[in-house]
Amino acid sequence: MIMGSIGSNLQEVKRRMAAASASAGREAKSVTLLAVSKTFPAEAVRAAHALGQREFGENYVQEALDKIDALADLRASLEWHLIGPLQSNKTRPVAAAFDWVHSVDRLKIAERLAEQRPAAMPPLNLCLQVNISGEASKSGVLPAETLALARAVAALPAARVRLRGLMAIPEPAATLAEQRAPHRALRELLQQLNAEGLALDTLSMGMSADLEAAVLEGATLVRVGSAIFGQRG
Ligand SMILES: *Cc1c(COP(=O)(O)O)cnc(C)c1O
User: Fold this and answer.
1) Which residues contact residue 136 at a Cβ distance below 8 angstroms, ignoring those fewer than 6 apart?
2) Residue nearest to atom 10 of ligand 1 (CA)
3) What percentage of residues in the chain have a pLDDT greater than 90?
4) Does ligand 1 come within 6 angstroms of the Cβ of 138?
5) pLDDT score recorded for residue 1
6) Confidence band for 2, pLDDT divided at 50, 70 and 90
7) Going by CA atoms, what residue is nearest to atom 12 of ligand 1?
8) Which residues contact 163 (CB under 8 A, 6 or more apart)?
9) In a mutational test of the pocket of ligand 1, which residue from 58, 223, 231, 232 has the highest number of ligand atoms less than 8 Å from its CB?
């Protein structure tokens, strides 16, 4: 990986986000860029941070904990988001190290995070990962079961965890119209939950290949890895 390209890559991703926001009639600042640094070294995160990037996403708990440790000097000025699968035996270090977890797909995980979030820290922000295409092989709660899970998670102690919204990883699709369909479905699901009285403000959707479709459908946070840091080995 060439560190020098991170700056121009970040600029290009922000240009894409701004263009999609403009065509959706949205303000550019209504969409947060989460830089997905999985498999890239701590020094790549440090380089992006030096260029002004503040939100970082990681998939693998141990790799993330090592990086968070290596970048402890920057901790007060960046946010760490766990976007990969979380097993219940790994919740304790996650509750103590992260600012967000996007991949909550069952109540037990959220309960453990709430129990284990240190009292001295601000609440851990949570998103429910939704299996928006409803495929048996994929992780995430099914759309039809999302309201019940959201209600249960929202009822956990507010000082420890805060349910912020929904996350999805749709199947890759070739055309903009095909890319938009699952993102639209996730947005409609969020609107349904809000109509049921849950106050959710986050739609975590869109990656390097489909961020325009996600922004057009209302993403508030896009998770972009390879378009910033390069292809993963
Ligand atoms: C790896 C990953 C991303 C980023 O994917 P790119 O295609 O590299 O942008 C986003 N979200 C999740 C959940 C991921 O695992």
Assistant:
1) none
2) 223
3) 95
4) no
5) 53
6) low
7) 83
8) 126, 127, 128, 150, 153, 154, 198, 200
9) 223
